[in-house]
Amino acid sequence: MNFSRCMLVAVALVFATIQESSGLRCWQQNCKECPDDQINGPGTDVMCELRNLVAKTWLGGSQLPYNSSILVESLEFQCVKLIASDPRIEGDSTDVIRGCILKSGAKGLCEELKTIELNRGKTNSICEICGEDDCNGAMGQGVASIFLIFLSIFVKILFH
How far apart are CA 56 and CA 11, in angstroms? Predict the structure, then answer.
């Protein structure tokens, strides 16, 4: 019986270690002039890698330079979410970008993306950077998840 418990703990620790070292996941979306129904859609869930970094080219700017001398193993990623529109124009389209960025250039990239949007006439832009898995999803997503958890607990207590 003791051996079984030890094996169970060992297996759990292995899975916990694998989960912890798997890397950062972010929502990825490149939606210029998004329809209203896609503005809050999170996009595609991706593992952060060099090949899927957000670039200024997503908004028509030039590609960000990448320093190839950086060791891939030492790279740290963050998630970014940019939402930009022009509130002065009724029915104006909204640009939405979500994806992975290098932690070392996160602040600068946000400012560059906001500048590109401003030059495109999008005077209202919000750029957020975060470092947890899938933290750059739609606004209010966390509140909805908490509500669903409490609702399921309530239903289980009520009918059990």
Answer: 43
